[in-house]
Structure formats: C-alpha cells, structure tokens
Hints:
The protein is of the alpha+beta class. The chain has helices at 8-25, 85-88, 227-234, 254-263, and strands at 55-60, 69-76, 80-83, 94-99, 102-105, 107-110, 117-120, 141-146, 153-169, 173-185, 200-202, 208-216, 221-225, 267-272.
Amino acid sequence: MRFPHLPDWTIYAAVIGALLIVSLGRREKADAPHLPEDDEAHGPLLGPVTPFDPSVTVIAPDIPFQPSSGTAFSIAGDGRWVTARHVVEGCPRPALVIGGGRALAADVRLAARADVALLLTEGGPPALPVAASAPLRKGQRAFHPGFPQGHPGEVASRLLGRETLKIRGRGERDEPVLAWAEAGRTKGLKGTLSGLSGAPVLDRRGRVLGVTIAEAPRRGLIYTTAPDTFVPAIRGEQRADEKALGEAVNTDNYGQVADRLRRDLRVAQVVCLTA
C-alpha cells in the first residue's frame, strides 16, 4: 500500500505551525493585572451653575437670635476658622470650645453672599488644606466631621449634583449649593444632624471642598456650599505657604480621622456665650 505524495508546501506549513506553537507556549506572561475602575475618578464632571438647577425653599423666620451650637474648622494656624454663617449670625459672643470646660472667644466676619463665616482668634491649631477649586464628579465621596446634636460625630456622603437654596425671610437670597446623599454616619447617631453646620466637607485626601450648611432628613440629603460661593468667601485667608496637611480618609477610617481632627482642635465646636 502506497501513501499519496504530499506537496512540499504542506510539509513546510506544518513545520512552521509547529514552531509557532512552541514559540507562543514559551512566551513570557507579564501582563499588568486589571484593577477595578475607581467610580469616583470616572464619574461625570459636575457642570456649572445653571438656571435649571433644582431648587429648595427655606424659610428663615425673622425672630431674635436663638443660641445654638455648630462646627468650625481651622484654615490658618494664626487663628482663622470657617463655619456656617447661620451658626453665628446674630450671636453677641461666639466662641470655640477647647475642652476642659473652656471656650475661646472669637471675632466674626460674615460672608456677603454665602452661608460662610470667618472666625478670628489669637492663634490656632494647624490648618486643614483647602482645595475648593478641585474638579468635582458626581458620585464622589465626602466626609463631614463635626458635632451633630452637640456631640462628636461624622457623616459620609456621595455627591448628587447642584441645587439652589432659596432663602426666604431673614437674609433673603438664592444660593447655589451642592447636594450630597448621606451614605453613613457615626454608629448610634439617630435623628437630626443639627450641630454639624459649619463642618468641613473633606475629599479622600482630607482636603476641604466646602462647608456643611443644611440637611433634608426626609430626603436623606446634606447640603454644602458650592465652589462658586465658598472660594470668594475665603479668598486670601489661607496663604500658599500655609503648613496644611490633609490625611487620607475613606469609609473604613473616617471615624478615626474625625476623632483625630477634633482632638487636635482642627475641627472644633462653636457655641454662643450668653454670659
């Protein structure tokens, strides 16, 4: 029995195929591992203020000032702090609680077009870094350390978008704000976040993006200043050479980071002294 004679080209093709298989089998595998995308880094950029942003109306009754408490944070080591304007507006003697039953009196400067106030003291703790002009992306996280209900506490949130607060009554104005969905809070903290007003809005690098100013409990929302009003309100208050260093913060450690900020008085409670 005789096998048919194969053409020379089929023999050459078989040899080349065998060599190619061996070569590919010995090739080094050094591919970079694929990492999950960071949903914050890849979220859509937040657009500018527009007349079509959703609005929320807030009624500010024209009544005598009622003593309350809030939160403030240091933006300059020479004694410059930021809080929410409504926390100290009308207060004759605002002060920062420094522990041991003591409070440090502060002078006040109110921003004209934002719910922001500057507190001035004789010296202060190291500043938090301010990055109010950093790009904002929908879905990015933020952390709000402060004194909700007058006690140490903190909240985590995610950015939803822009809204407009329509303040009616005392101090009537329309103010662009950022709306954040609450994503977590201090264990055991129930109910209102009153007292968190004035708290810094921290990004993942521990930099300040704005000031916490209001909440909508039924909607699970937190409102903060927008860069459009926050940046002009504090312009020039933190020098370029300010020794400000932020600490990385995430959903696992934001409680510990908040505790350290309060312990170092970089975040402090604001009160109104009545006597």
